[in-house]
C-alpha cells in the first residue's frame, strides 16, 4: 500500500503571504494549474483512489487530480484539515514564523494535536482502502509534521502542489519522498533538532 500526500494548489492567501490555517480559501488560477501538473506526474503511478481534506482548496485540487487521472473522487476526512492558527489566521506568514520560530503560536492548535489528527486520518484511509494506492490531498503543516512523525525525523517545508510518498509495510510506515525528492538520511544536526521538538505521538498503531 502506497500513499501520496499532495499539498493543495496555491490560493490568493498563499500568494500574498497570509497565514491560512483553517480559513476556507479557494484555489486561484495558479493553484489549479499546479493541481493539473501534479496529476501529470502521478499519471505514471498505480493510483486507485483520491481523497482529501474537506477545505475548498484541498477538495478542488483533489477533484482536478481525480478527473485528470480518470479516478472517482473519494470522501473528505475532517482529520486532514489544516492546523487551526486561531487569531493569527490572515496575518503575514513570514512575520509570524519569524516571531515564533518554534511554531508555538499563541491561540493556535498544538503540533501534537495536528499530528494526532494526521495519523488518525491515515488510519481511517487505510481501513477504507485496504491494499490500495491512495492520493491524499491536504495541507502543508499537517503533511509536514505527519511525515516527520512517520519518519522519526524532521522534514522540510511542503510546497503547493508538491507530492510526497510513503508506504505501509506490515505495521510500519516508510517515507519515500518529500516534495518529489527522495528522503535522505538525516544529519546529526537534524536529529538533535528533532529530539527537542518531536511530537510525542507513536505512529505504529495506525495501520489498522
Tag the structure with descriptive keywords.
single chain; 208 residues; alpha/beta; Rossmann fold; 7-stranded mixed sheet; 7 strands
Derived from helix and strand composition plus strand pairing, the structural class reads: alpha/beta
Q: Total domains, how many?
A: 1
Beta strand count: 7
Report the major sheet.
7 strands, mixed
CATH architecture: 3-Layer(aba) Sandwich
CATH topology: Rossmann fold
What sequence of helices (H) and strands (E) makes up the elements? Answer: EHHEHEHHEHEEEH
Q: Can you give the mean pLDDT?
A: 91
Overall shape? globular
Protein name: Histidine phosphatase family protein
InterPro entries: His_Pase_superF_clade-1, His_PPase_superfam, PGM_Phosphatase
